[in-house]
Amino acid sequence: MFEDLANKTALISGGARGQGASHARELAALGVNVVITDIRDELGAAVAEEIVSAGQKATYLHLDVRSSADWASAVEAAEKQYGSVDILVNNAGVVQCAPVDLLSDEDWDEVIGINLAGVFRGMRAVIPAMRRAGGGAIVNISSVFGVKGTWGYAGYVASKAGVAGITKSAALTYAADNIRVNAIAPSSVDTPMLDEEKVIMAENPYFDFDEWMASQPIPRIAQPQEVTDLLVYLVSDRSRYCTGGIYPIDGGILAG
Q1: Alpha helices in the chain (DSSP H)
Q2: Which domain holds residue 34?
Q3: pLDDT (tens digit, 9 = 90+) per residue, 120-143?
Q4: Taking a C-beta distance cutoff of 8 angstroms, is the pair 12, 34 a contact?
């Protein structure tokens, strides 16, 4: 179905669990050489081993998305092993539930450094490799909260809105290089990060998760595979006329 993806190489940040691991497994099953990166080395290596055991191609590399050196090393390793980098999935992220007046400098720097600056550093590292490959597809993971905002998530909303903005700018800038850049904006997804978020939500008096779910036209949590299905479309030739888009997968919340 997605024959054009066979033998391409995808670099995925935050690939050790949750959405990132789902993306890695599906792309590998479609014949993509998958380079999984994360700071959770044991989990990431296990995902890569699982993929290889299934007869597919995967490599795990340690990568802190805040480190330009780590990004440069990952791109170099991917090109050396597989010959190119054709796909970038900027998936790594952290969530914080804090309003402006309760957000520390350290927490602000962390969420911006990972969620937004990490996306910038990833694209900056990969774009020259994609030029060498004759083009590529980049998918950045934003959030529905980066499109509409929400109560008490100041740093997180700012970071994800920034991801949407840099996606649009890069799409315009690199279309002539045959590099397409899009973003996915999910609502809540059933991942370990959501489990962690629910714990810290208790400290956010502005946001009630149950009310948030009930407000969605499709009032349930998304499954990682549902995000992956959209991602596969966006990195394949089926979306070859799509660039600069921010694609919600949100149970219809943005329609209201």
Answers
A1: 18-29, 41-53, 68-82, 105-115, 117-133, 145-148, 154-174, 192-201, 209-215, 224-235
A2: 3-249
A3: 999 999 999 999 999 999 999 999
A4: yes
Question: Catalytic pick from 153, 156, 174, 247?
Answer: 156
Tell me if residue 156 is catalytic: yes
**Distance between CA 2 and CA 14 in Å, rounded?**
24
How many domains, the chain? 1
Which whole-number Å values give the CA distances from 173 to 86, 131, 161, 241, in the listed order?
17, 13, 19, 15
Kindly state whether residue 256 falls inside one of the protein's structural domains.
no
Q: Which two tokens stand for residue 141?
A: 């993971």
Q: Is residue 254 part of a domain?
A: no
Tens digits of per-residue pLDDT, 65-80? 999 999 999 999 999 9
15: domain CATH number?
Answer: 3.40.50.720
